[in-house]
Specification:
Layout (H helix, E strand, L loop, with lengths): L1 E5 L2 E4 L4 E4 L2 E2 L4 H12 L5 E2 H8 L3 E2 L2 H14 L10 E4 L3 E4 L5 E4 L23 H9 L5 H17 L1 H8 L5 H11 L17 H14 L4 H29 L9 H30 L4 H31 L9 H18 L7 E2 L3 H24 L5 H10 L9 H6 L7 H23 L17
Antiparallel strand pairs: 1-2, 1-9, 2-3, 3-4, 5-8, 6-10, 7-8
Helix pairs in contact: 1-3, 4-5, 5-6, 5-7, 7-8, 9-10, 9-16, 10-11, 10-12, 10-16, 11-12, 12-13, 13-16
């Protein structure tokens, strides 16, 4: 790998260092990768889609994430968006590195770094800039430009000193929103200190402001929720159809091929409802929480699955009682909690390196994510079966036993699997297969990347 010299800066991709007059200028990894990409493609107008595909290849983020990254890079390079020396915005397209005299040289040799790093953060860093920056941070934002100005103030305050910024913030007007923004911005500033919420003034108001802030920037939320629902639904259709085909092929069965589409529709509806609930809870947790990700995703997915399961349980029992006079204890809430929690935990483990957006791995990593999530859901379903809590297949068997629709009992399928009657082995195998299919479909639906518009709608002043 070569290193690049431009103006008073040295950029070393191999050592992952940006130096200014020999002093290290820290950037978080994704921002560093973006700067390297622009320098490598210097002279070209790099499209925003290419940048997202290169720098945020494993997550889905909003367009504002790119604008924020460019703003931070410009501040680090002492650049001015109104008269740029280094990074120019190309209207409705992307960005271009425009400094003409970039020297590309071998990076095998050593260089002497001056100790320490600059503590200033750009044009706002004067002798005592805290008060001016805190005033900017605490002001209520009425426009997108105001929001960008507040965030820039938060980032500069972190470079000056997080602890001192929090001490001076105190309880001045607007402190809850300011503390929330400092908390959110700390992830984008290297060496930023912790920003606690609990034990500080107005913890509830700060938490609400932080949630609002992150929800406003949530990327592809509806598309991700819909993808999870479609993925779960398709998995249910596949599972129901395969189960129906096996049932019709089992020895001694009375079921006809007509049962195949019926079971496919039932499986699809259950899978779609479960996928919608689990996907919504997981995506919401992933958008709001940046620390303790596995716990947050498991909890959010469990909550979403529990709500969807409770709704399905109520609707199922009411429908059976009203239409056919069958009153049996169908599952739903507990099953949704268990499958949702397992799906969230498996997804979090498989995408543990994703940061700064909604995880959306590609290629083999996407397949591996689906496999891990499927395994987690399969194990949860096996535990439910062992506890006597059947999923869709077992519930259909119970309904058939309680009504005149005897041809849809799964006893022939149990005999095909080696049991004389529908027993624990058959219940375990069917439930495990259902859970694994649901987990795989859910993960594939969640990780589907939405298409981005070829045109940017963000104001140029924000870029």
């Amino acid at each position: 790998m070569p290193r690049y010299r431009f103006s008073e800066f040295v950029l070393s991709p191999r050592r992952r260092l940006l130096l200014h007059d020999g002093r290290e200028q820290p950037l978080i990894p994704r921002y560093f990768d973006l700067l390297v990409f622009l320098v490598e493609r210097r002279g070209e107008a790099v499209h925003r889609r290419e940048i997202f595909d290169r720098v945020w290849s494993d997550v889905v983020v909003s367009d504002s994430a790119l604008s924020q990254a460019i703003r931070t890079i410009r501040r680090t390079l002492r650049d001015d968006s109104r008269d740029p020396r280094f990074v120019r915005t190309v209207s409705r397209h992307g960005y271009r590195f425009v400094f003409p005299d970039v020297i590309e040289e071998d990076d095998e040799g050593e260089w002497i770094e001056q100790p320490g790093r600059e503590a200033t953060g750009g044009p706002d860093a004067v002798q005592d800039p805290y008060d001016a920056l805190l005033d900017r941070l605490s002001r209520a934002a009425t426009t997108a430009a105001d929001e960008e100005d507040r965030r820039e103030a938060a980032e500069v305050l972190h470079t000056l000193g997080t602890a001192e910024a929090l001490r001076r913030l105190g309880t001045r007007p607007g402190h809850a929103g300011a503390r929330a923004l400092l908390r959110d911005a700390r992830w984008d500033v290297p060496h930023a200190g912790p920003v606690p919420i609990f034990g500080q003034p107005a913890p509830l108001a700060t938490t609400i402001e932080l949630v609002r802030l992150r929800l406003r920037r949530m990327a592809a939320g509806p598309a991700r929720w819909a993808g999870a629902s479609v993925g779960g639904g398709l998995a249910g259709v596949l599972g129901g159809a395969l189960g129906g085909l096996m049932l019709t092929a089992a020895p001694g069965t009375a079921a006809s091929l007509a049962v195949v589409p019926v079971l496919a529709v039932i499986g699809g509806c259950c899978g779609a409802a479960g996928g919608a609930g689990v996907g919504a809870g997981l995506s919401l947790a992933e958008s709001i929480v940046r620390s303790q990700r596995a716990v947050a995703l498991a909890g959010g997915a469990a909550l979403g699955g529990g709500v969807a399961g409770a709704a399905a349980q109520w609707l199922g029992r009411w429908s059976l009682a009203a239409l056919v006079g069958v009153d049996i204890m169908t599952g739903g809430t507990l099953e949704g909690l268990a499958l949702g929690g397992a799906a969230g935990f498996g997804f979090a483990v498989a995408t543990r390196h994703a940061d700064g957006g909604l995880a959306a791995p590609r290629g083999q990593r996407r397949v591996a994510t689906a496999a891990v999530t499927a395994a987690a859901c399969g194990l949860a379903a096996l535990g439910l079966a062992a506890a006597g809590r059947p999923l869709v297949g077992g519930t259909i068997h119970l309904i058939a036993q309680s009504s005149d629709a005897a041809q849809t009992t799964l006893t022939p399928l149990a005999r095909l699997l080696g049991e004389p009657e529908f027993g624990p082995v058959t219940a375990a195998m069917i439930s495990t297969a259902e859970g694994a299919l649901f987990g795989a479909g859910l993960a594939l639906g969640l990780t589907r990347r939405p298409r981005r518009s070829s045109r940017s709608h963000e104001p140029l002043r924000n870029c």
